[in-house]
């Protein structure tokens, strides 16, 4: 496992090896809640294998905010960074293996490894930009366009994620997604 991480992020693999007492490897079955909406996020996850999703329950309507796959850092970042109740739930989609680090240990290794601050900044910046694009797509694009963009730019999601989660990510019902897919397949 460490070899795969070291290939993706050579220095990060070294940090894991040098601070192995801070990290726990956990295998989580599919469809398990790791963080409940309203709880405070006190851990950061690094996806080694599998997939996860961040969602919000709005009046009984579950909305998927983002998906996470191998080599992604995952947390409800606002909650993790500010010690506030999470607006989101974090769930596994597939059987997932993660490395978990508690917030107090993360702070120690961040202070002792400046490059990690840069790596973490890059991840959080990418995530922020992703949120902006996703938010704007709800304003500027029709559901068909959102689906086409997902197909074009993030087709791996469609291969690994159940359609009900894809539909909620696109802001549509599963019935609407089925219709969009049927029209696309007729062309």
CATH topology of the largest domain: Jelly Rolls
Helix segment count? Answer: 9
Q: Percentage of helical residues?
A: 40-55%
Compute the average pLDDT: 89
Total strands: 8
Which regions have little confidence, pLDDT < 50, spanning 5+ residues? Answer: none
Task: Give the strand content.
Answer: 15-25%
Strand adjacency order, main sheet: 1-8-3-6
Give the SSE order as H and E letters: HHEEEEEEHEEHHHHHH
Name of the CATH homologous superfamily of the largest domain? Jelly Rolls
CATH class category name of the largest domain: Mainly Beta
Radius of gyration: 17 Å
Helix-and-strand structural type: alpha+beta
Number of domains: 2
Silhouette: elongated
Largest sheet: 4 strands, antiparallel
CATH architecture of the largest domain: Sandwich
Distance between the termini: 43 Å
Reconstruct the topology from this structure.
Layout: H1 2-8, H2 10-18, E1 23-28, E2 33-35, E3 43-49, E4 52-58, E5 61-68, E6 73-74, H3 77-82, E7 89-92, E8 96-102, H4 103-112, H5 114-140, H6 143-153, H7 155-160, H8 163-170, H9 174-186
Antiparallel strand pairs: 1-8, 2-7, 3-6, 3-8, 4-5, 4-7
Report on this structure.
- The structure is a single chain.
- This protein is 52% helix and 24% strand.
- The protein contains 9 helices and 8 strands.
- The strands form 2 sheets. The protein has a 4-stranded antiparallel sheet.
- A hairpin with a 2-residue loop joins strand 4 and strand 5.
- Helix 1 runs antiparallel to helix 2 and helix 4 packs across helix 5.
- InterPro entries: cNMP-bd_dom, cNMP-bd_dom_sf, RmlC-like_jellyroll.
- It comes from Flavobacterium hydatis.
């Amino acid at each position: 496992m460490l070899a795969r991480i070291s290939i993706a992020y050579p220095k990060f693999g070294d940090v894991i090896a040098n601070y192995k007492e801070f990290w726990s490897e956990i295998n989580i079955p599919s469809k398990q809640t790791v963080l409940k909406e309203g709880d405070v996020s006190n851990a950061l996850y690094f996806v080694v294998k599998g997939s996860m999703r961040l969602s919000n329950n709005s009046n009984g309507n579950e909305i998927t905010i983002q998906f996470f796959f191998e080599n992604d850092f995952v947390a409800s970042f606002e909650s993790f960074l500010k010690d506030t109740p999470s607006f989101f739930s974090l769930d596994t989609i597939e059987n997932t293996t993660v490395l978990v680090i508690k917030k107090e240990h993360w702070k120690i290794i961040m202070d002792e490894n400046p490059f990690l601050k840069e790596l973490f900044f890059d991840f959080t910046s990418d995530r922020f930009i992703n949120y902006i694009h996703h938010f704007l797509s709800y304003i500027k694009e029709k559901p068909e366009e959102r689906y086409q963009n997902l197909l074009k730019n993030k087709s791996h999601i469609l291969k690994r994620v159940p359609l009900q989660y894809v539909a909620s990510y696109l802001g549509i019902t599963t019935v609407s997604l089925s219709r969009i897919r049927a029209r696309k397949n007729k062309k």
